[in-house]
Amino acid sequence: MICEFCRGKTRRKKVRRQHWLRGKLYIVENVPAEVCSECGERYFLAATLDEVDQHISTEHEVKEHLDVEVVSL
């Protein structure tokens, strides 16, 4: 695949994704994505994002809890 921002080539990788669902923030690891080797832009298939929603919506193992600050600029 070619990156729509910089025209670099992408390659398939598993990444960590910040994902919002029903007003809660989740960090999901091992999410398949196409990642640009030039600028780092990440592309996710709609089916992959649906799978993430489904996984979060059902009983799932929690690896870790993080304390996150929210600031306004």
Q: What does this protein look like?
A:
The protein is α+β, with helices and mostly antiparallel strands. 16% of the residues lie in helices and 37% in strands. It has one helix spanning 46-57, and strands spanning 10-21, 24-36, 42-43. It has a 3-stranded antiparallel β-sheet, covered by helices on one side. It is globular. The N and C termini lie far apart (35 Å). The mean pLDDT is 97.
Order of helix and strand elements from N to C terminus: EEEH
Instruction: Show unreliable segments.
Output: none
The major pleated sheet works out as:
3 strands, antiparallel
Mean pLDDT equals 97
Number of strands: 3
Binned, the helix content reads 10-25%
Question: What is the end-to-end distance?
Answer: 35 Å
What strand line-up does the widest sheet have? 1-2-3
Secondary-structure-based class equals alpha+beta
The number of helices is 1
Beta-strand level of the residues, as a percent range? Answer: 35-45%
Globally, the shape reads globular
Radius of gyration: 14 Å
Topology of helices and strands:
Layout: E1 10-21, E2 24-36, E3 42-43, H1 46-57
Antiparallel strand pairs: 1-2, 2-3
What features would you highlight for this structure?
single chain; 73 residues; alpha+beta; three-stranded antiparallel sheet; 1 helix
